[in-house]
Specification:
heterodimer; A: mainly alpha; B: 833 residues; mainly alpha; 65% helix
Chain lengths: 105, 833
């Protein structure tokens, strides 16, 4: 109970941090492996992968936030969890550059 | 086993003082009490602050005029490096650690922290490590490569003396203190609170410290790892940062700033916690948006770990990666703004008292908001490219750190010093001191924005007259001297308060937090009995609670066997669940810190063959700490008052040490993950990959070691039965086999580790595994001894469960370490350029 309740207020941010590292790692690995030069129609393989990964992260955090709200506890800790999870969801805007910015140096 | 009947308040006070107090004379070296250790931390940090301040004055004297001959370039490099090192590592962090140690048990309604001896050990490590660094300055061998010690400048090629070693070893030594404090604070806040104090009834300061301690746990290991790797390169030639052998100087920057940026928030958030405590009291109104503030602090903590590259915008990182860090840097302003608006709303809705702490809060608001605004400017990549490495950045960081830490800490000092000394300020000098600091600070650092925008680089010792920077620099220097005079007045003011301040009865600020529900100055045991909390713990009535608790009407209102007892609670609900019996005062923390210091000193003087002996002595001393821990027979539940009986913590599922081990392993896992990240980063980014020679892979020894680790973890999982001794013998034997197998591999391949970063990475990862296996071996033998000595039973199997946590961790990291050469080989061979 204790561990879950504590995790509940951190979970979306843990997801955000994991997503951040994952995107950074995929971008760096993709540049190293030349995925940015493999074109799939109008966009590169690397950009496609990054967009899919970003969408997956946003959906995951959306689901976590919605789940926290659906659980419906009115306790103070649950309200903090909803606020913190919602903030993490909003913070995924950090990743939107994958759509248009230059991927590799 | 019963608790003695309630006694008179005076008799109870005498008995508790006898149990919890620190004896005078040499006995002070055995002090473990949180009040004593907290005050020592703060006082020592202030001494280092004074040293850092003197160094700042030397810098400003040097830069006041063009072509100054006051300091030569080499001395100037030591002075500015040590100014940063002292202020960041020896003042800011230890000061708030001390404040947290002093305040947290009192605010949480407990009598001490969870691991008092660890606090004492941390203090001695800090004192010795700090003295080590400052001693190097006095003897002219201080670090001189900037407080961030960038490679390749700090590599042995370009810094051949011991200066860089002093930084690497001294900082690692000091950071032991920070990590031990992080574990201490996390466990204490989560487990040692007054009955009924749920997480959301905690005073807001405890929330801040809980989150900061979590950040320290994750933030410091990358720095410690970076220091170890760089020292390994300097001492043994392992080329992690040498681009000619597959290393990369940028790896250092990543590891350093993975620590360095959260560090800024690690410094700011405790100060913000103090503000969130002081402002409501002075505004005579509860903090507005308690829940939103908690959520904002959580958000800020996570965001702070996504900013590290904003110190590296100019190193050639692709646009999309820059955008992640730039956006996260800008976003950090939002939760910071939430807190500032919460404070403003509290002031606006309340009836603020214009006292001296409030003056410093005003100073904070003005200076920190300006620093935050320039922070948002620097978070934007195009602006940062223009201002990078100029005095604009110096101005920004001082606005943030002095605004975000020094002004709040001055407010905190004026607010809590009456608690420490039992006297109120006389305030003859307080106002003049504040205005001198405020005006002096803004003169010094506002002008620095302008010199920076005019192109003045950081860390230069002289500049030519035609640069046009002299007038602004002269203004900065004059401002610096005014500010220093202001700090001297504060020191005098606080001394006057301590000696001539007006005594008071209780709670001079009419605060609603528990630290005022006790005599001031506080007794060693803090509370004669522990309160039951049924409301948020910043809206209590200390004037009513104080006398009630002093007369023993709360929990644990009597002594038992001379035990140092506190109550352990459920982490979330605050429901009491155990009696935690703390260990007695001892000189062992001091001796262990001396032995730890000897280890670092031996490395510094390059007596590498002796250093492991010092490490063994440290391990032996730590084992001695366990002499007075544990029970030799099962106990019935202990009465704690109010008709409640609770088990001794040794007989519970999750006592404080269980969580301490979990948090320690979390920090350990962060270090290991950083090591793996570093190795993969080198594969991705470093020149001269793949290595010319083959990467050594020994399948046989790896399989033997893997099988041994599985056996050790498998038998180490067993609970207490008649076969426990046999199981522990098998665990020790399996660890011995794993040690031999991995040791054989390392001996055979250590020569190759200096040839290329790939082999160096493998060497480092395997050394990590060997160290953990060695500790696992010691733990299994220790558990065997504890079982044979009667400390372990079905109800008292804590030692076995702590061992189980370690064995599982060692298995996981060990298997990764054994597979690591295969992965590197695959990557280097499969995706080379």
């Amino acid at each position: 109970m204790s561990g879950r309740a504590l995790l509940g207020i951190l979970i979306a941010w843990i997801g955000w941090a994991g997503g951040f590292l994952f995107l950074y790692a995929v971008q760096a690995t993709g540049c190293r492996a030349g995925w940015n030069e493999q074109m799939l129609g109008p966009i590169s393989l690397l950009r496609l992968l990054l967009i899919i990964a970003t969408a997956a992260i946003v959906l995951l955090l959306f689901w976590l936030t919605a789940k926290a709200q659906r659980d419906g506890s009115t306790s103070s800790l649950a309200r903090i969890g909803v606020l913190a999870n919602g903030a993490a969801l909003l913070a995924t805007m950090c990743f939107t550059g994958v759509v248009w910015l230059r991927l590799c140096a | 086993m019963t608790q003695a009947p309630r006694k008179s308040a005076l008799r109870l006070h005498r008995e508790l003082t006898e149990i919890w107090g620190t004896p005078p004379g040499w006995g002070r070296l055995q002090a473990v009490n949180h009040t004593v250790i907290g005050k020592r931390f703060m006082l020592t940090a202030l001494v280092f602050f004074a040293i850092g301040g003197i160094l700042a004055m030397l810098i400003r004297t040097q830069l006041a005029t063009t072509q100054s001959a006051f300091l030569d370039a080499a001395t100037y490099a030591q002075v500015f490096t040590m100014h940063g090192v002292v202020m960041m590592f020896l003042f800011a962090i230890p000061f708030f650690e001390g404040l947290a140690m002093y305040l947290l048990p009192k605010m949480l309604g407990s009598r001490d922290l969870a691991f008092p001896r660890m606090s004492a050990y941390g203090y001695w490590c800090y004192l010795f490590g700090g003295t080590f660094l400052v001693g190097a300055l006095v003897t002219g061998v201080a670090p001189d490569g900037g407080w961030f010690m960038y490679t390749p400048l700090s590599s042995s090629t370009y810094s051949p003396g011991v200066n860089a070693d002093v930084w690497l070893l001294g900082i690692t030594f000091v950071e032991i203190s920070a990590l031990s404090a992080a574990v201490e604070i996390l466990v204490s806040v989560l487990k040692l609170r007054a009955p009924g104090m749920s997480l959301t009834r905690m005073p807001i300061f405890a929330w801040y410290m809980l989150i900061v301690a979590g950040m320290m746990l994750i933030g410091f290991p990358p720095l410690i790892l970076g220091s170890i790797l760089l020292e390994a390169e300097r001492a043994f030639g392992l080329p992690f940062f040498d681009p000619t052998r597959g290393g990369d100087p940028l790896l250092w920057q990543h590891l350093f700033w993975l620590f360095g940026h959260p560090e800024v928030y690690i410094i700011f958030l405790p100060a913000a916690g103090a503000l969130s405590t002081i402002i409501p009291t002075l505004a005579r109104r509860p903090l507005e948006g308690y829940e939103i503030v908690v959520a904002a602090v959580i958000a800020l903590a996570f965001l702070s770990f996504g900013l590290w590259v904003h110190h590296m915008y100019t190193v050639g990182i692709p646009h999309v990666a820059l955008s992640f860090f730039s956006a996260a840097s800008g976003l950090a302003a939002v939760p910071t703004g939430v807190q500032i608006f919460a404070w403003l709303a509290t002031l606006a809705h309340g009836k603020p008292r214009l006292s001296v702490p409030m003056l410093h809060i005003f100073g904070f608001m003005f200076v920190f908001v300006l620093g935050g605004l320039t922070g948002v400017m620097l978070a934007m990549v195009p602006f940062d490219w223009q201002a990078h490495d100029t005095h604009f950045v110096v101005a920004h960081l001082h606005y943030v750190l002095v605004g975000g830490f020094v002004f709040p800490m001055l407010a905190a000092a004026y607010y809590w010093l009456p608690h420490i000394f039992g006297r109120q300020a006389v305030q003859h000098l307080s106002h003049a001191a504040f205005w001198m600091i405020f005006i002096g600070f803004n003169l010094t650092f506002f002008a620095m924005h302008l010199t920076g925008l005019r192109g003045m680089p950081r860390r230069i010792s002289t500049y030519p007259p035609e640069a046009g920077w002299e007038t602004l620099n002269f203004i900065s220097s004059m401002g610096g001297f005014i500010m220093t005079t202001g700090f001297a007045l504060v020191a005098l003011d606080l001394l006057l308060l301590a000696v001539f301040g007006k005594p008071f009865r209780r709670n001079p600020w009419q605060a609603g937090t528990l630290e005022w529900a006790m005599p001031t100055p506080p007794t060693a045991y803090a509370f004669a009995s522990l309160p039951e909390i049924s409301a948020r713990a910043d809206q209590l009535d200390p004037d009513r609670l104080g006398p009630m608790l002093a007369s023993g009407q709360g929990y644990l209102g009597a002594t038992r066997h001379g035990w140092m007892e506190v109550i352990g609670v459920d982490m979330v609900t605050g429901k009491p669940e155990q009696v935690v019996v703390l260990p007695k005062r001892t000189g062992l923390p001091l001796l262990t810190a001396i032995a730890t210091g000897s280890f670092f000193a031996l490395l510094l003087v390059k007596l590498y063959w002796l250093a492991p002996i010092a490490l063994l002595i440290v391990a032996a001393l730590f084992l001695l700490w366990t002499r007075d821990c544990g029970l030799k027979s099962d106990l019935a539940d202990l009465p704690v008052g109010h008709g409640t009986n609770l088990p001794h913590h040794y007989q519970t599922e999750q006592p404080p040490s269980y969580w301490a081990m979990a948090f320690t392993l979390t920090a350990d896992a962060t270090l290991f993950a950083s090591l793996l990240f570093g190795s993969l980063f080198l594969w991705l980014s470093a020149p001269n990959w793949p290595p010319e020679s083959a990467i050594p892979i020994d399948v046989t020894t790896s399989l033997i070691a893997a099988a041994a680790l599985v056996v050790a973890a498998g038998f180490g999982r067993a609970t207490f039965t008649g076969r426990t001794e046999r199981n522990l013998c098998i665990v020790a034997l399996a660890y011995g086999v794993a040690l031999l197998a991995l040791g054989y591999f390392l001996i055979n391949t250590h020569g190759e580790a200096t040839q290329h970063a790939a082999m160096a990475s493998i060497f480092a990862v395997k050394t990590y595994a060997i160290l953990h296996i060695f500790v696992g071996l010691i733990l299994s033998l220790f558990c065997l001894w504890r079982v044979r000595s009667g400390y372990v039973s079905v109800r008292r199997d804590l030692d076995l469960r702590l061992g189980r946590q370690w064995h599982l961790f060692t298995l996981t990291t060990g298997l990764i370490a054994l597979a690591f050469p295969l992965v590197i080989n695959l990557l280097a061979g499969g995706a080379g350029p």
